[in-house]
Amino acid sequence: MSLAGKVAIVTGSGRGLGLSYAQELARQGAAVVINDVDADIANAAVASITEAGGKAIALVAPVGSTETAKALVAAAVENFGGLDILVTNAGVLRDKSILKMTDEDFDLVINVHLRGTFTCVRETYAYFKENNVAGRIITIGSPTGQRGTFGQTNYAAAKAGIVGMVRTWAQEMKRAGVTVNTVVPVAATAMTKTVPYFAKAVEADEAGEAMPEFFRKTLGFGTADDVAGLIVFLASDAAGNINGQVIGAGGDRLQLWSHPEAVATEFHDGGWDYATLNENFQNLFGEKFQSVGERFPELPAELQPAPAAK
After folding, report:
1. What is residue 268's predicted lDDT score, i.e. its pLDDT?
2. Entry pTM
3. How far, in Å, are 137, 169, 306 from residue 124 at the CA level?
């Protein structure tokens, strides 16, 4: 087992993607701290691991505060004797277009995703440094954070912010031998279940059947288990030279995302005043504007969702 003797924290791991990550980490030998806000769900997740011969305990608390972050690290150390791996998966959604999004909608998503990642990483890294642990930190991003999605101002901000923090942390933590990366999963979740485009894929997954190849190969969309292998790999000693990267996983597809780079550069003597920009901007950059949002290929006829009942 690649993670024998290791200890991992996985936030938001009572169900869905987080549970798959936790189960695979345990399957590969790690003892796991399960985290969720629902005690019954957290305890069921622990049972799914211990009944399979793994080691797990639950800490029931909402992610975001420093207190929860400290409690998670303490739970790992007190129950399993140390900490080697952190996966920051906890998240919530409050999707609304900007004019309908309230302060509360925005703050909640930012607190759980962005602040929760920050506080948990800070406490984990403090433990790593104090105890000379060359640990692994894996944050969870989203295509929305890379490309933007209509109605997800709060979520896009949080996920893009996580990637920005990871690029900074990779520099700060390198000398300590700690790696920090972002995984961008593309998988059937509670969110994608509500999107008609993915209906046939989700139906197959819930029926325990293989997803149609269009989703797995063309779209790179799969199950939670398709992402779990990447989580374990990045948590292992084999990934010690991988740092500050954004890696996508879904279905049969694996992607290494680029970091933002200038796509066009121009200079003008004396700088760029309004008149110069007005005269030249479109000619210089108009054909190089970058697209926004995700672009999905058209579904084959046999995978079109059934029309809604009238």
Report:
1. 96
2. 0.94
3. 8, 12, 47
Tokens representing 30 are 């790690």
The tokens of 7 are what?
């200890």
105 part of a folded domain: yes
3-state secondary structure of 161: helix
Residue 308: the pLDDT is 65
In a domain, 99, yes or no: yes
Contacts of 159 (CB under 8 A, 6+ apart): 113, 141, 142, 144, 145, 146
Q: What span, in angstroms and rounded, lies between the C-alpha atoms of 244 and 180?
A: 6
Residue 18: give the domain boundaries: 7-187+223-256
Is residue 269 in a domain?
A: no
Q: Tell me which residue has tokens 């009944």.
A: 51
Task: Output the furthest CA–CA distance in the chain (Å, rounded).
Answer: 71
Instruction: State the catalytic residues.
Output: 142, 155, 159
Domain count, the chain: 1
CB 60 within 8 A of CB 37: yes
Q: Is residue 234 part of a domain?
A: yes
Contacts of 188 (CB under 8 A, 6+ apart): 198, 201, 202, 205, 211, 221, 222, 223, 224
